[in-house]
Structure formats: structure tokens, C-alpha cells
Design brief:
The chain is mostly helical. The chain contains 5 helices and no strands. It has one domain.
Amino acid sequence: MATSTTQNKWRRKNRLVKSQLNVMARKQTHEELEEFAATFQLLGKGEAVTFAAFLTKGLMQRAEFDGEAARMLDDITAAYHRDRDIYSA
């Protein structure tokens, strides 16, 4: 974990374009983020979170005009909600 001095420096430097996101997540989620980073040549778990958001947004946009993408998004959403307790912290 970064020191408070390092965190404050980061916040000052990026205050207009970024905000810090600290979340508690299961070990499985951290391992999956590391896997995403390795698979898609990302710069660590932070960028993997950004990529996951980017990917989700892309799927949502594709679902607006592609029925198969819409079904896939609905299936993934339903599966997550069904098994939410497995994935949430």
C-alpha cells in the first residue's frame, strides 16, 4: 500500500482528471484482474479495472444494435445477479 505522502502527491497531480478508487474485493477478483492484465498486456490491476469498464461499455453499445450481443449481456447480467454472493466482497 502506498504511503500517505505518495497518495497525496498522486491526488494533487491528477486532481482534475482522475479520482482514486479503493475497493475491497475477494482474492478471486484480484487474481482475475492479474489474469486480465497478463492476457491483454495491461499495466497491472488498475488498468485491468479500466479495461473491464471499457469492455462492458463496449458490449452495452454493441447490444443497442446487435441482438446476439444484447442476449449475451442479458445472460451475463442474470448470471452475476444469480450468483452475486460468490463475486461480491
